[in-house]
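hi! just following up on the protien thing from before. the input was this:
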Amino acid sequence: MADEDLYQYFKIEAREIVSDLNRDILGLERGGDGAEPLARMLRQAHTLKGAARVVRLPRIAEIAHAMEDALAPHRDSPDAVSKEQISRLLQQVDTISSEISALDPPPTAGTPSRPSALEFERVRVGVAEMDALLSGVSETAVQLDGIRRGIELVREIEDRLAAFQQQLTDASPGPRLHETVEEMRLALQHARQGLGMRADSTEREVAEVRGNLDRLRLVPTRLLFPALERAVRDAADMLGKQVVFHTSGREQCLESHVLSALGEALSHLVRNAVAHGIESPQIRLARGKPPCGEISLKIERRADRILFTCSDDGSGIDVDAVRRAAVSRGIVSAACAAALSPADALELIFSPGVTTSASLNEVAGRGIGLEVVREVAGRFKGRVGVRTEVGISTSFEIEVPISLSSVRAILLAAGDLLIWVPLEAVHSAMRLDIDAIVSLAGRSSLLFEGRSIPFIRLAEIMGRPLASGADSRPHLAAIVQAGTELLAVGVDRVIHASEVIVHPLPAAAGRVAMLAGAVFDAQGNPQLVLNPEALLEAAHAASSQPMQPAAPTPHILVIDDSLTSRVLLQSILETGGFKVDLAVSGEDAMAKARERHYSLFVCDVEMPGMNGFEFVSRTREYDYLQGIPSLLVTTRGGADDRRRGAESGARAYIVKGEFSKDSLLETVRSLVG
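and the predicted 3d structure came back as:
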C-alpha cells in the first residue's frame, strides 16, 4: 500500500479517536460514570499511539503515550482526576488534532483554506463514494434511454409491417403469406410490450436507488455535538462562568457541507450565549438563579426542513443597547432606531458590526456580530430568528432544508433552450393570448388573478435574441413565485417535472446570480437551473421596449473530454449570450460540424484519439470549415505548445486555471465578431 493511502486511513481513524477523546474527557469533567469513559480513553490513547508509530509520526505517538501515563493512575479512581489534569488532557488532544491537520496538503492558490472545526473527513469520503454510485446510476439511465429508443424502433417496424400487410391484402396473395406476416406483427408487438415493461421497471428501480443514495449522502447532526460542547466548555472556562450544555436531536440528518457550515454558525451562537447570555455565578445568585447556567441545542425535523434552536437561561438581550449599537455603526439613524418595534429592533443584532459587548475578548465582542449566522442560513436557503425575555432567556432559531442537492424541479423550453426551475417556486402555468402582454409603467406585464405582474421571456432573460414574426411569441407563461412576488416567464413548452440533483457550477465560472446550479440529463449533458429570486430582479430591471430582431446568436462548439471543463465552459459561454453545443472528442466534433454551422470551436488539446492540434489542423482541410476560428483552452502553457497551436491554425490560446470568466468572454467575442 502506498504511503499516501496509509496516511488517509490513519487520518480517518485518528480523527475519530480525537472526537471520542474530546467527548469522554468532557464527560469525565462533568462527573458522570467515570470508570467506563476512563477505560475507553486509555484504550483510545493506546490505539492512537500504535497507529502513529506505524505511519512514523513520533510526535503524535509521544503525546498519546503521555496521555496514557496521565490516565493510568486513575484507572480505579476516575473521580480523582483534577480540573488541571482535564485541561491538560484537552490541550494534548488539541495538539494531536493540529498534528493531524498538518498532514493535509496545503490549499492551492485561489482555494480557501479548510475550516479548523467539523471536518467530517470520513463522512466526506462516504459522500464521494455515493457520488460515484450516483454516476453509475446515471449510466444506467443512459442505458434506459437506449431501451426507449429500441421501443420506438420496434414501433416503427410495426407500422411499416402493417403498411406492407395492407399492400399484400390489396394484392390478394395466398393465406400462408398473410399468416406469416401476422405472426411477425404479433412477435414485434410482444417484443415491444416486453421492452416497455422492462423499461418501466428499470425506471422505477433507478428512481428508487437514486432516492436511497441521495438519503445516504445525509450525515447525522450528532457529529456537531463534541465540538460545540468543547466550545461551551472553553468559553465558560475563559470567562469564569459555570455552564451546562444540553443537546437533543442527535439522529437528524443533513448534507455534510451544510452541516459543516452550520457547525461554524452554531459554534458562534453557543459562544455568544456564554459571553452575552449566561451571567457570572455571583450575579445569577443575586438574581435568584442557580449559579450554573444552562444552554440547550434542540434539533428537530419539520417536514423537509431541519430546525436548530439554541437557547440559554441568561440575562436576555438589551434591545435598547442593540438600538444604540446599530446607530453607532451607522446602520440606522437615531430617529429610525427609536421608531422600531422591539421585534424589529432585535433583528438589528444580525447587522454587520453590531455588538452589545462592552469589551473585546477571544469569545465575543470582536465587532463581528451575528451577521455570520444569517449569512450561513441565507447561503443554504434558510432563515434565522431570535426571541428574548429580559432577565430570563434568549433563543435563536436556524431553519434550513434537509437536502439542497435533490429538488423537485420543472423543465421549461424556449426554442432549443432548456432551463430547470425549482417546482416550489412555480405557482402555475397558463396559455398566452395574443394581447395578454401589456406595457405598464415602462415594463412588460401580464394580468394575472386580477393584478399586474412582471413579464419576461425566458429566451430574453438568458441573453438570447428574440426572433421576429407572429409565431415567435411565447405560447405559455410559467408563473414563478419569489418570496411574496409573482413573475410571468414566457416559454414555448413546459416539458415535465422531475426529482433532480442540482450540482453547483464550477468555481471558475464565477458567481452567476441568475443560476442556482446545473442538472445532468441522461446523456450526461448539463442543463442550467434558474434562481427564482435573481430572475425576479432581472425582470424588474428589464425594459418593456420591444426588442428588435437581432442577428443570429453565435453558435459555439465546445470540445473537451473532461466533463468538468465542458460544464464550466458551457456555463460561462451561455451566460455570455452564446448558444453552445458539446463534443467529447475531436471525432465527435467533426461529426457535429458536418451537421451544423458553428461560429467558433473552443477546443481542449489533450484528448484521446484526435487531439486539439490535430482537430484545428483538420478544420483547415475542408471548405465548409474554413473560416471558422478555433480557440484552444488547455492546461499546457509552454512556449512550444503555444507555437504548435499557432501553427495548427488556432486563432487564440488560453491556459486553464489562468483565465477569468470576463477574459474568456472578451476573447470569444473578439473571435466571433
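The chain has five domains: 3-106, 122-216, 220-317+356-401, 405-550, 551-673.
Residues 220-317+356-401 form a domain with the Heat Shock Protein 90 fold (CATH 3.30.565.10).
cheers
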